[in-house]
């Protein structure tokens, strides 16, 4: 009896509400049809394109621009979906926006790549919603484009002002007063009053029968080489970048400063064999050559052979050069194995070894510990930090210039050290 009553009750309300449901369904269908006609009637209702720079700067924020034009006679709500390169691992990258009728909108977003290489952008998709928001039409623009990510040329430009005489002191960059001078022989001339008697050439005077003196000119163009270790020690990551990428960014910024200061900039790479190299020059295209070379180098897993680096330097480098070696020694034993080769190099060239400080361990070791395991962990971390500083002191004790710094401070520290060496006339 109860079931019959329930069936009767539902049947009654069905026939009562059916006209209203039919009316609302018809209205919804009508609105859908209007929305569909408004959005799909115009073939090119939305225009759009993506603006990309010619190349990206690694580890920096690079701007990507998007231009949108509403060709409809009504305002539209848009969802912009850009197919950014797979290296960024962002599968839902998109945003909503509104455009009035005939409005043009310029917008942009930032991308920060963490590795060098080729990045491919896909299509730019724009979904235009009708006035009712019931229908969306997709517009796809075939904006597929390949962009190369180069070493940080934005960082290079930030430090370029160091090549000029300036009083600015930003980000730890220092202006140094030059002590003494570096000179190269020009010619032998007869002595005249006022010449420096310390430059008298007695052999030439004995042959000619009159006083002769050596004339010198200030040597402005010195060869400086960035030498990058491509061994496994440079694979260690910090803040999304490997030590190799920090070294590459630093060497590019430093090479630019060296060229602006009138020196010849060169590059060499090595691991268990000598990798890509570029002879030190001061030609106008040298920086571009270095950038192209740095763009493609990668680190591997072999142990680096400093003996091979020494042999290469003795064969290829004639005059005294400044060699900035970007490497990393995790413990003193690794450094001592390579110390004989570094000492041998320092007999013929000015050697500056750059090693990386593990600032994460440094911060961790300085925090208080409340448990026994915490004390043990912090003691081990402090031991690693102490070993790094001991390595730097040991290298200095053997007459080898050393930089020990956190990866993010590498460019500033390297440029400052170069300016200090130039100011002291060591090269």
Helix content: 25-40%
Q: Span between N and C termini?
A: 109 Å
Report strand order across the widest sheet: 17-16-13-18-19-20
Count of DSSP helices? 10
Count the beta strands. Answer: 20
What profile does the largest beta sheet have?
Answer: 6 strands, mixed
Please tell me the overall pLDDT: 83
Question: What portion of the residues fall into strands of 2 or more residues?
Answer: 25-35%
Provide the low-confidence segments as ranges: 165-171, 176-182
Radius of gyration: 34 Å
Note the run of SSEs as H and E.
HEEEEEEEEEEHEHEEEEHEEHHEHEHHEH
Shape: elongated
> How would you classify the helix and strand content by structural class?
alpha/beta
Structural write-up:
By secondary structure, the chain is of the alpha/beta class. Helix content is 36%, strand content 28%. It is built from ten helices and 20 strands. The strands form six sheets. It has a six-stranded mixed β-sheet with strand order 17-16-13-18-19-20, with helices on both faces. Strands 5-4-8-9 form a four-stranded antiparallel β-sheet. It has a three-stranded antiparallel β-sheet with strand order 1-3-6, with no helix packed on it. Helix 8 crosses helix 9. About 3% of the residues have low confidence.
Features:
427 residues; six-stranded mixed β-sheet; four-stranded antiparallel β-sheet; 10 helices
Brief write-up:
The chain is of the alpha/beta class and 427 residues long.
What is the topological layout?
Layout: H1 2-40, E1 46-51, E2 55-57, E3 62-70, E4 76-82, E5 94-99, E6 104-111, E7 117-121, E8 124-129, E9 136-141, E10 145-150, H2 153-158, E11 183-190, H3 202-208, E12 212-218, E13 223-229, E14 237-238, E15 241-242, H4 243-260, E16 264-270, E17 274-281, H5 286-296, H6 306-316, E18 322-326, H7 332-346, E19 350-356, H8 359-365, H9 372-397, E20 401-405, H10 410-423
Parallel strand pairs: 2-10, 13-16, 13-18, 18-19, 19-20
Antiparallel strand pairs: 1-3, 3-6, 4-5, 4-8, 7-10, 8-9, 11-12, 14-15, 16-17
């Amino acid at each position: 009896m109860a079931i019959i009553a329930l069936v009767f009750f539902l049947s009654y309300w069905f026939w009562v509400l059916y006209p209203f449901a039919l009316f609302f369904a018809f209205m919804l269908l009508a609105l859908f049809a209007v929305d569909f006609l408004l959005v799909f009637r115009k073939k090119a209702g939305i225009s759009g394109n993506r603006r990309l720079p010619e190349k990206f700067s690694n580890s920096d924020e690079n701007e990507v621009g998007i231009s949108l034009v509403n060709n409809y006679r009504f305002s539209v709500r848009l969802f912009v979906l850009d197919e950014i390169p797979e290296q960024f691992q962002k599968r839902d990258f998109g945003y909503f926006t509104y455009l009035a009728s005939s409005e043009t909108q310029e917008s942009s977003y930032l991308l920060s790549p963490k590795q060098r290489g080729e990045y491919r952008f896909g299509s730019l998709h724009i979904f235009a919603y009708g006035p009712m928001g019931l229908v969306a039409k997709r517009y796809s623009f075939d904006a597929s484009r390949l962009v190369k990510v180069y070493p940080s040329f934005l960082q290079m430009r930030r430090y370029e002002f160091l090549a000029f005489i300036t009083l600015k002191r930003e980000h730890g960059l220092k202006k140094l007063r030059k002590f003494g001078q570096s000179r190269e022989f020009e010619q032998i001339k007869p002595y005249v009053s006022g010449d420096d008697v310390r430059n008298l050439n007695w052999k030439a005077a004995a042959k000619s029968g009159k006083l002769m003196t050596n004339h010198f000119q200030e040597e402005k163009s010195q060869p400086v080489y960035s030498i990058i270790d491509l061994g496994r020690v440079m694979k260690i990551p910090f803040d999304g970048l490997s030590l190799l990428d920090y070294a590459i960014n630093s060497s590019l910024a430093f090479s630019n400063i060296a060229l602006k200061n009138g020196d010849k900039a060169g590059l060499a790479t090595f691991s268990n064999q000598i990798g890509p190299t570029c002879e030190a020059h001061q030609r106008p295209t040298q920086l571009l050559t270095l950038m192209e070379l740095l763009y493609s180098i990668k680190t591997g897993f072999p142990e680096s052979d400093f003996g091979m680096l020494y042999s290469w330097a003795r064969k290829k480098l004639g005059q005294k050069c400044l060699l900035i070696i970007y490497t990393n020694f995790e413990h003193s034993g690794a450094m001592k194995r390579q110390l004989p080769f570094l000492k041998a190099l320092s007999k013929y060239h000015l050697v500056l070894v750059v090693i990386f400080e593990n600032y994460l361990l440094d911060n961790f070791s300085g925090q208080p510990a409340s448990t026994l395991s915490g004390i043990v962990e912090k003691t081990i971390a402090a031991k690693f930090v102490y070993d790094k500083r001991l390595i730097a002191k040991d290298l200095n004790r053997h007459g080898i210039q050393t930089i020990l710094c956190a990866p993010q401070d590498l460019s500033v520290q390297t440029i400052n050290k170069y300016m200090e060496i130039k100011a002291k006339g060591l090269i």
